[in-house]
Structure formats: C-alpha cells, structure tokens
C-alpha cells in the first residue's frame, strides 16, 4: 500500500516589524507593496502568508486596522493562501492593541508569542556600547533594551480573547523554555492539541541558529507534545535557508520571508519575498519534498477554513 507523501508547508513572512525600509528597498511597507509581494509569494508556493501592517509613510510597524484593511481584501481577492496575522505588534504595544487586528479580521491563523525576552537585532543591540545610564528615567521604554513582553497573563489574555474566533495559533517559541511555557499553558487548558509551533532560531535574546539547537528544540518538543503537533522553523538572518532545508529533512515545515532575513544568499539582498519562496521551494523539491497547497496546509494544520 503506498503511503501519501508528506507535504511541506511554506510560510512567507512578508514584512515583519523589525527590519526597516532603510535596510532594503525590497522590504514592503506600503499596502500595495505588501499585497503585491504577498500575492507573488503565494504564486511562488507559499501556502501561508504571515502578515504585519506598516505605516505607509514611515514604514514603522502599525496595529492600525485601516493599515490592515488596505491590503487584506486585495490579498484575499487574488489568492487562496492562508492568511496569518501577527499579534506581535511593536515592543511598546499592549496585548489589547496587538490582538485587535486578529479580533477584527478573524484570520485563519495568527501568531502567538510564547514568552517574554530580550528581542534585538545585532546592529541595534550594539548600541549598548554607547548607552548612557540615567537612574531617574522611566522603567520601561523601547529604547531601554528591546524587551518583548509575553507574560503568562499576556498569553492568556490574548488566547481568551481570540478563542471564540477559532483561529489557529502559530506558537512562536524563541527558546527551549518557551516550549515549556506552551506545555504549561496546554496542561492548564489554555490550548488544545494539536498545536502548531514555530521554532524561532537566531533572534538575539533567543536560542542561536544552528543545527544542534534545532535538534534540541525538536527533541524537547517531541518529549513534551508527543506526535500530536506540527512544527516549522524560521532561521533569522543568514541561517534562513540552511535551517529550512534541515527542518524539512527532519519532518517539519518551513518559514521564509523578508521579516526573517533580507538576504537571498550571503551578502546579497533579496529582490522580493517571492524570490526567497522560489529558492526554498527549489531546494526542497530538489531534495524530493512535496510542497503543500493552501488547502493541503488547511488540512495538515486543521484550520477553520
Ligand atoms: N514584533 C516583534 C518583536 C510575531 O509576528 O508575532 C516580534 C513579532 C513576532 O512580531
Ligand atoms: Zn511576525
């Protein structure tokens, strides 16, 4: 009896919140560019589109519903790819602000970040060399060191608010401890199996991007969740393609996109999100993997559809 081949889901994270338009001309921030790049990424083989909104003038990350409304209908009209809205917001947004777009648009998926952490890109964190320490200043400001707050209370608040919408979470786990946070939340009834976990490797403040760490994340998740979960990997920066290929070989799904890396190969900026999707797809297909369509991704992840 022939067993149907496993399909690999490619997620494309189109723009994110952290990279700035000054870093690459390809990074989309205007609604029409986010829509066009998302549609092209779907045409190239991304079954899932992980989306943030940005301010169309400044390029800063935005949780303004109008900024989402400016691209979501265009994407829905041209592709049947699964839409996954970020609940990450910016490092200064409250949980209520961060979850508002997902509550308003009720997408099939949204991200949910599984722990509080330092969160930085290496060039930004290097500013520590020139930091001045003012003992009188307010306790929490973004410029104080890029704290990404996701306490158990924050996670529960977002989960309770989003629960009636039947949205599948992309549980973003930036370190092994966050897998235990997820397990704790499951044990206390906040989330039910099967969960979909995004292993995030290579963010400064989280676990480093190498194969040892990927294997450790996978082993730990197997120990905690048994066989009843789906997982994917995003390697931030230079590790993006290597970790994607390794993840597929280990039975996982993959995430690429300009949110996670601005490059197509070492030292060369990517021209678009679609270019990264085409590259990862070609690498995976060369190795014999089959790529999931949006409907196959819906079935694998048990989405509300
Ligand atoms: N805004 C960030 C610090 C996600 O998409 O959920 C990370 C983030 C992840 O936004
Ligand atoms: Zn994101």
From TrEMBL:
Pfam families: BKACE (PF05853). The keyword Heme does not apply. The keyword Zinc-finger does not apply. Keywords: Metal-binding, Transferase, Zinc. Its cofactor is Zn(2+). GO terms for molecular function: 3-keto-5-aminohexanoate cleavage activity; metal ion binding. This is Uncharacterized protein (DUF849 family).
């Amino acid at each position: 009896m022939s067993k149907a081949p496993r399909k690999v889901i490619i997620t494309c994270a189109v723009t994110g919140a952290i990279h700035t338009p000054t870093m690459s001309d390809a990074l989309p921030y205007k609604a029409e560019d986010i829509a066009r790049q998302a549609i092209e990424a779907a045409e190239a083989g991304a079954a899932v589109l992980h989306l943030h909104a940005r301010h169309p003038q400044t390029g800063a990350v935005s949780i303004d519903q109008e900024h989402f409304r400016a691209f979501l209908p265009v994407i829905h009209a041209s592709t049947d790819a699964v839409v996954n809205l970020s609940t990450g917001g910016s490092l200064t947004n409250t949980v209520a602000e961060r979850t508002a777009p997902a509550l308003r648009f009720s997408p099939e998926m949204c991200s949910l970040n599984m722990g509080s952490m330092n969160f930085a890109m290496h060039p930004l964190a290097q500013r520590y060399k020139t930091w001045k320490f003012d003992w009188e200043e307010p306790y929490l400001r973004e410029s104080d060191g890029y704290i990404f707050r996701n306490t158990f209370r924050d996670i529960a608040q977002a989960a309770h608010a989003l629960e009636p919408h039947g949205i599948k979470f992309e549980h973003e786990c930036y370190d092994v401890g966050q897998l235990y946070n997820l397990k704790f939340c499951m044990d206390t009834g906040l989330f039910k199996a099967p969960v979909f976990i995004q292993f995030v490797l290579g963010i400064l403040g989280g676990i480093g991007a190498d194969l040892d760490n990927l294997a450790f994340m996978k082993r730990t998740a197997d120990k905690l969740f048994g066989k009843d979960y789906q997982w994917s990997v995003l390697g931030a920066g230079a590790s993006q393609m290597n970790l994607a290929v390794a993840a597929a070989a280990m039975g996982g799904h993959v995430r690429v996109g300009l949110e996670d890396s601005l490059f197509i190969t070492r030292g060369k900026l990517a021209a678009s999100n679609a270019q990264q999707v085409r590259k990862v797809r070609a690498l995976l297909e060369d190795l014999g993997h089959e790529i999931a369509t949006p409907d196959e991704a819906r079935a694998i992840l048990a989405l509300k559809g």
